[in-house]
Design goal:
A: about 110 residues; mainly beta; about 0% helix; B: mainly beta; seven-stranded mixed sheet; four-stranded antiparallel sheet
Chain lengths: ~110, ~110
């Protein structure tokens, strides 16, 4: 079962612009994470936000979480060509063992 | 540098063959996972294991089995490969009680 659904499916922007990706989920969660995947490679963890947090920053990344709407957003500021990748949200359900991933957003940053 | 290593990056197999995908982690993690990734579907959980010799079905276990004889090694087995199992397979691990998964580089399997 898919828990997270990212929006948009694909995003193309110019270098220097901001990129915003959204994620919606269905059940109660302990935390929400964002991962990045370069083409043909494994996923790399970017940031984790707990269910009692509303916003978190890490470098050029800003993540928000709205548990009442069951949604999260990832903002990448001042994007670079090297940010070109797929970005996935992932949730750990309350009381569960599993981390469940969405379908991902493909970001293309043009130099 | 901590690692999850998937032994085969690319494999090509024929329908009906038995396929082994190996995953080894060097972080002493208790929990290990196998996902498959397909375009538009994201990552779907096949099986996971939270201890040696323990295994739990994920969302799409049909056609797959797993083996965890040692803590560091989690193997995914396709008893009789079929063309609809052509996919990218990703292994991940995490310590018990922790949240952040460490992934291997992936194994791209093509079944002809």
């Amino acid at each position: 079962s898919q828990q997270g659904e990212e929006d948009p499916q694909a995003l193309s922007i110019q270098e220097g612009e901001n990129a915003t990706m959204n994620c919606s989920y269905k059940t109660s969660i302990n935390n929400l994470q964002w991962y990045r995947q370069n083409s043909g490679r494994g996923l790399v963890h970017l940031i984790l936000i707990r269910s009692n947090e509303r916003e978190k920053h890490s470098g050029r990344l800003r993540v928000t979480l709205d548990t009442s709407k069951k949604s999260s957003s990832l903002l990448i500021t001042a994007s670079r060509a090297a940010d070109t990748a797929s970005y996935f949200c992932a949730t750990d359900e309350t009381g569960g063992f599993k981390t469940i991933f969405g379908a991902g957003t493909r970001l293309f940053v043009k130099a | 540098d901590v690692k999850v290593t998937q032994s085969s990056r690319y494999l090509v197999k024929r329908t009906g063959e038995k396929v082994f995908l190996e995953c080894v982690q060097d972080m002493d993690h208790e929990n290990m996972f196998w996902y498959r990734q397909d375009p538009g579907l994201g990552l779907r959980l096949i099986y996971f294991s939270y201890d040696v010799k323990m295994k739990e079905k994920g969302d799409i276990p049909e056609g797959y089995s797993v083996s965890r004889e040692k803590k560091e090694r989690f193997s995914l087995i396709l008893e009789s490969a079929s063309t609809n199992q052509t996919s990218m397979y990703l292994c991940a691990s995490v310590s018990a009680g922790a949240n952040v998964l460490t992934f291997g580089a992936g194994s791209r399997l093509t079944v002809l």
